[in-house]
Design goal:
mainly alpha; 7 helices; 2% strand; single chain
Length: 194
């Protein structure tokens, strides 16, 4: 289970190298940060990862002191975004393409073997969440990518067993059901035949 501190450290460390990352041609960037004890290792820095951590931090209940710290991080992120807008949008478009391919691959694996892949959904759906967050940042840049996302959503929606929020309840407020509908259900291990 990830905590407030986990997301905060990732965003903080990411902002330290964000400009170098934005100006690079890389999709993934090394990040020098250690997770809180007992929590998973951090993934490499990506724009989608930063946006996801920001959304998660938005969902946590915070003391006034923590709220000030988070507001300071968000302000720095917004400052970098404003100053490096073109590089940000270019990276968002590229990141969208990369995450879309990864999400499509997972959906294909699920279609071919639902019994082997349904349990991966709570982890893999972070890709779909990043896609939503990247859309407002400059991606997708190609109509075909928008079409593919629509096709993938059209496949997932009817098979998704709707239910409660699938991530930590502490971050739920950052992911309203109207927008992030795919975080409120699970994939079945057996697909119904039409």
């Amino acid at each position: 289970m990830k905590t407030f501190d986990y997301d905060y450290r990732y965003l903080q460390a990411g902002l330290e190298v964000l400009v170098d990352y934005l100006l690079s041609g890389e999709s993934f960037w090394p990040i020098d940060v250690h997770p809180p004890e007992g929590e998973p290792e951090y993934p490499q820095l990506t724009l989608g990862g930063l946006l996801l951590s920001r959304a998660r931090l938005t969902g946590y209940r915070k003391t006034p002191a923590l709220m000030d710290q988070v507001t300071e991080l968000f302000s720095e992120m917004d400052r970098i975004h404003a100053k490096w807008r073109v590089a940000w949008e270019k990276k968002a478009g590229h990141s969208f393409s990369v995450r879309l391919r990864m999400w499509r691959d997972f959906i294909d694996e699920y279609r071919n073997a639902p019994q082997d892949n349904a349990d991966r959904y709570p982890y893999e759906v972070r890709l779909r969440t990043m896609l939503s967050l990247l859309i407002s940042e400059g991606g997708p840049q190609l109509p075909a990518e928008e079409d593919l996302l629509t096709v993938l959503d059209a496949y997932i929606k009817p098979v998704l067993s709707t239910g409660g929020f699938i991530w930590e309840t502490e971050v739920q407020a950052g992911f309203p059901k109207e927008v992030f509908w795919y975080l409120y259900g699970k994939l079945p291990t057996v697909l119904r035949k039409n």
